[in-house]
Design a protein that fits this description.
Blueprint lengths: L11 H5 L4 E4 L8 H11 L6 E4 L5 E2 L2 E4 L11 E4 L3 H14 L3 E4 L11 H12 L2 E3 L5 E4 L4 E4 L7 E8 L2 H11 L6 E6 L3
Parallel strand pairs: 1-2, 1-5, 2-4, 5-6, 6-7, 10-11
Antiparallel strand pairs: 3-4, 8-9, 8-11
Helix pairs in contact: 3-4
């Protein structure tokens, strides 16, 4: 008998239809991934609370920043992480402690194998029961939920197809290809590393 690995459905609702989102790592820099995701979430019309965590700034783009996930005035169901690789596992652990069910890790260059930042993130996720998308991913877009937790150039139009891709470039390319053709998506997720 062979063992088959199956992807669990644990906390997928928190990835694709969260009640609240926190972004960790946005800064006032024009090219900050966290800042872009914050802008995309707001522009996309996400209806739930959106929190911003950065201890160095009081606010970014008119959104008040909290010094930590624990200091947010609500429990973030989904946390978007865009911090340096050495900080990712600690932020993921803090997200779980704050009550988050899932995290999208945009950070790249996490390394591979024992002792890497990626291995530390995986250990936190397993130990704390935190669903992870990424690292090094384009993010998650769920048009029906008005969730644009991505740094893709455009959101897809709402539809009935779901697109899951390892490659962020393929996911972004499919979004760009589909828009003028009137093809919509229920969700787009780039899994990254």
């Amino acid at each position: 008998m062979t063992a088959h690995a199956a992807m669990s459905t644990y906390a997928l609702q928190s990835v694709f239809h969260p009640a609240s989102v926190a972004v960790v790592g946005a800064s006032p820099r024009a090219r900050s991934l966290g800042r872009l995701v914050l802008q995309q979430l707001r522009a996309g019309g996400f209806a739930g609370p959106i929190g911003l965590v950065n201890p160095r700034y009081a606010s970014i783009d008119g959104v008040e920043a909290s010094p930590s996930l624990a200091a947010l005035p609500f429990v973030p169901e989904l946390v978007v992480i865009a911090v340096p690789p050495a900080d990712v596992a600690g932020i993921a652990d803090a997200a779980a402690s704050a009550g988050a069910k899932a995290a999208i890790v945009l950070t790249r260059d996490m390394g591979e194998g024992t002792g890497s930042h990626n291995a530390a993130l995986a250990e936190v996720a397993r130990a704390r029961g935190l669903r992870i998308v990424g690292p090094n991913c384009l993010g998650v877009i769920a048009p029906h939920a008005k969730l644009f937790a991505s740094f893709a150039a455009h959101a897809p139009i709402p539809g009935d197809l779901a697109l899951i891709s390892q490659s962020g470039a393929v996911a972004a390319g499919m979004i760009e290809w589909s828009r003028p053709r009137g093809i919509g998506f229920s969700a787009v997720a780039s899994l990254g590393d």
